[in-house]
Amino acid sequence: MGRDDVLLEARDITFGYSRGQAVLDEWSARFRVGCVTALTGPSGRGKSTLLYLLGLMLDPSSGEVLFGGRNVVGLPDAERARLRSHQFGFVFQDAALDATRSVLDHVTETALYRREPRKEAERRASQLLDRFGVDVPAHRKPGQVSGGQAQRIALCRALLSEPAILLADEPTGNLDPTTSSLVIDALRMHASAGNTVIVVTHSPEVAAASDVEIRL
Questions:
Q1: Residue 84 in contact with residue 113, Cβ under 8 Å?
Q2: Going along the chain, which residue ranges are E strands?
Q3: Which of 70, 56, 57, 61 lies closest to 23, judged by CA?
Q4: Structural domains in the chain (count)
Q5: Which end of the chain is least crowded, N or C, by CB within 10 Å?
Q6: Could you tell me if 51 and 67 are in contact, meaning their C-beta atoms sit under 8 angstroms apart?
Q7: pLDDT digits (tens, 9 = 90+) for 138-180
Q8: How many CA atoms lie within 13 A of 33 on its CB side?
Q9: Measured between alpha carbons, how far is 88 from 43 in angstroms, rounded to an integer?
Q10: Domain-embedded: residue 1
Q11: Of all helices (H) and strands (E), which one includes residue 156?
């Protein structure tokens, strides 16, 4: 696919958490392959909710989410899970790490779910952890790392599978400027490899480094 191709599209989606209060109302956008798209705007405008809709974790009350030109709204849970594990990577705002599992287990979990060889997954996981400066023993648990380290671990988990769609919610929120720049470069590099990157951010630096900014 070239830079002008679209793998993911929202078409007239509406969603609300309570009756009569739509967070998104007939909202549409096309997300180009090869581009980083920043979703910006004040808190409460539905940016994080939009990521969940685009990532097949929520269904809109109306409208379509198209992946590869196919409407994926309403797919059976098993098929949604398969699509997420094979095509999507997620970086949640709170890192979403299980306190009972090791750093290495978190980074490799999606690869192992897809039945990739454990040794190869662990080798690539170690490379990513080194790349992002997560200088902690691989057996350490999330409760034993800082918030910034947890965020980088979550990014490593998302990147390990080289997903076609990378969705990130405030991926630089807990990071110092130097590490933030490293993450921004990684997002741009992932997009330039022929993938789609969508980032929710309040950071002017992330927005400025993106190819497209959509303000909600």
A1: no
A2: 6-18, 21-32, 36-40, 62-67, 70-71, 88-91, 165-169, 196-200, 212-215
A3: 61
A4: 1
A5: N
A6: no
A7: 788 877 777 788 888 888 989 998 999 999 999 888 788 888 8
A8: 14
A9: 24
A10: no
A11: helix 147-160
**Alpha carbons 144 and 150: distance in angstroms, whole number:** 9
Give Dmax over CA atoms of the chain in angstroms. Answer: 51
Q: By residue range, what is the domain housing residue 148?
A: 6-215
Tell me whether residue 73 is in a domain. yes
- Its pTM stands at 0.88
Helices and strands (H, E) in the chain, number of each type: 7, 9
CATH number at residue 110: 3.40.50.300
Count the Cβ atoms, other than its own, within 10 Å of residue 138.
16
Q: How would residue 95 be classed by pLDDT, with cut points 50, 70 and 90?
A: low
* Residue 109, domain member (yes or no): yes
Q: Are 170 and 139 in contact (CB under 8 A)?
A: no
Residue 22 lies inside a defined structural domain of this protein: yes
Q: Is 81 helix (H, G, I), strand (E, B) or coil?
A: helix
Edge-to-edge strand list for the sheet holding 6-18: 21-32, 6-18, 62-67, 70-71
Q: How many residues does the chain have?
A: 216
Query: Which amino acid appears at position 90 of this protein?
Result: F
Residue 199 to residues 73, 75, 206, Cα–Cα distance (Å): 21, 25, 8
Instruction: Check: CB of residue 83 under 8 Å from CB of residue 161.
Output: no
Q: d(Cα 205, Cα 87) in Å, to the nearest integer?
A: 27
